[in-house]
Description:
Elements: E1 6-15, E2 20-29, E3 32-37, E4 47-50, E5 55-58, E6 60-65, H1 78-87, E7 90-95, H2 106-119, E8 123-129, H3 142-148, E9 152-154, H4 163-175, E10 179-182, H5 187-190, E11 195-196, H6 199-204, E12 208-209, H7 212-228, E13 231-234, H8 240-251, E14 256-261, H9 262-266, H10 288-299, E15 305-307, H11 315-318, H12 335-344, H13 350-365, E16 380-390, E17 409-419, E18 422-426
Parallel strand pairs: 1-4, 1-5, 6-7, 7-8, 8-9, 10-13, 11-12, 13-14, 14-15
Antiparallel strand pairs: 1-2, 2-3, 5-16, 16-17, 17-18
Amino acid sequence: MSNGLILFKNARLIDPASDREERGGVLVRDGLIQAVGPQVTEASDAQAIDCGGQVLAPGLIDMRAFIGEPGGPYRETLKSAGEAAAAGGVTTVVSMPDTSPALDDPAVIDFIVRRARDTSIVNVRPAAALTKGLEGREMAEIGRLREAGAIAFTDGARSVTNAQVMRRALTYAGDFDALIIHHVEDPDLVGQGVMNEGEFASRLGLPGIPREAETVMLERDVRLVRLTGGRYHAAMISCADSAGIVRNAKDRGLPVTCGVSINHLALNENDIGDYRTFLKLSPPLRHEDDRQAMIEALADGTIDVIVSDHNPQDVENKRLPFAEAADGAVGLETLLSAALRLVHSGRLSLPRLLRAMSTRPAEILGLPAGRLAVGAPADLIVFDPDAPYVLDKRQLRSLSKNTPFDEARLEGQVSTTMVAGRVVFQRDTM
């Protein structure tokens, strides 16, 4: 559908930025929201989309997705990732720098920006490498990378173990108001571990990863933030102790935010069952008590955002013994459906959930999206939160099919996705 005058009518409007929920419509012109509210019912010369009472909300913003380009297009391309994202209601994706070559050079960042513009139907904002070659030894050129289009700085799935390097990065990033995103997992404490340390790992005969691998790194980082004043975002936390560390940092007024993977909100270590490698993740799935703590921390605002942690892996890397299989699961297309379990169970309100998936990521990244307001970008989704379906991984738009939710009963399907005023996805049943 062309980028012109489009009217969404008969919608259940939810604006997570203002907690407003009402019946009405949205008028879009030239990629921006021109009018919104109960008074928006008709518009001459507009192409109308009748939402049929479904939810209309800002598009989701996913702050953590691994995409194969450059170097691994067999896992995922910018095009296929965009198609999966649109089908899942994600209108902006922050791509990680774990590519080949790594995104540690302005020319490579520029390539991703141009390639995404030409091939992806959603917004792709690259995060640049925090250190050269993702090796954790020498800080990347944050200023030049930011000028080239990097929205944040991270070493992706790797942790910067050298405290002096992290201190310098936080200090230098502060000069540019740049955001540091860090994977909080001490590789030395992880060791040979492949799942959460505890009774269940012992029963399976698998080496465990202690929670301290996460909390030790997170505690160190918070102290460095206090020392430098740099903006810091823990990419994903997964246990109750980590939530306590972030809560204390926020109480002290430190510029610290954090995310949680949808997998750690919807699943626990018991779901691994009989060595299901599609559930081998980093950080690992934790005990049910930790999952409950993550939900509570999300509800009280300690956790800021929910991410898909989309990490496509091919069959050769997953059809292996559990200890040898690669970490990661795809998640762009199932992010919203899996998250709606929290709404259906009464743990979160729908506006609160959407705030963690659209408004709050936009605020942290400095994007104008994530709100239903006049003048805001027309990155919008229409979805039925109660539409039931059984996930068939063969129907996923991602090139890789390593989903932890295969054959799961889910509720909530996206009907329409709009990016910058252009409808990029419409489900056939709409």
